[in-house]
User: Fold this.
Amino acid sequence: MAERVGIGIDLGGTSVKYALVTQSGKILKEGIRPSYAQSEVRIILENLASAAEEMKSFAERKGLSAEVVGIGTPGNVNIETGILMGSTPNFSAWRDVPISEEMQKLTGLPVFADNDGNLMALAEAKLGAGKGCKNLICITVGTGIGGGIILNGSLYRGSAYAGAELGHAVIDTEGIRCNCGSTGCLEMYASATAMIRRFSAYCRRDKIKQESRTPDAAYLFDLYKKGNTQAKQAIDESIYFLGRGLASFINIFNPEMIIVGGGVAEAGDLFLNGLRKITYQYAMEKPSENVRIEQALLGNRAGFLGAMTFAFGEMDKTVVPV
Ligand SMILES: [Zn+2]
Assistant:
């Protein structure tokens, strides 16, 4: 019997990444298209439905039948109703959208939606770096810092689907003001954005002319390897702040593993070795005894893989045994 297949969709601020995936995580076909984040809700939904349609017809051509659609979106999602609660940064009209209901109408398939950070964590836990772990923390370090928490093999979402905001753990009470309304959040110190901001400040301080007008994390790591002082300082500080954050998560959750993903983690051991050192130095002895700190394995495919995994899980819960 052919393996079951589903469609995973990852809606991001810039692009939509999507794929036809087998239930065990094999990608049969994938696609990417703009997300139209500044457009009205109808346009965004129709774009998602057309992505699903593309995968559905590919499946049919292969003699397969896509059973379910999973969607990851920024923002908080009530997973029982599939409704996005409130708004999300980087989108103008995408708020309070009944995603599952609307997408079900457009695709004719069962649709399940959840927060994108949660779904990435789920993908890494079930199909990626965390395979076999029951308790783990997944942290994504990019423009901001997002995350997901897996406890006893399931996602922990909080009492109102709004938890796991790991980037908003406070590491400096008198610190930099954050978009969330608080001050001194981890995200303001250890995200790629923060790293680049510090690098630019150090270049100005040392009267060094920056060669790139739009430096990104990869560019900074390149400079770091060449021994650039300002890049080294900016990266070392990010590692320090992130390590202090991870040490707190270890003390609270005592996980088996912390998975680090996002653009910054792509630097691999150059970043992770320093991060491990700081994290173990500051975490309490007992909770950090068995914890491993590993790089995420699924890259930007984690979103749609997690969406597919989640959707199959939810669909199978609702099937009434005969
Ligand atoms: Zn914050």
User: Anything to note?
Assistant: The pocket of zinc ion is lined by residues 168, 178, 180, 182, 185, 187 (CB under 6 Å). The first helix runs from residue 41 to 61. The chain has ten helices and twelve strands.
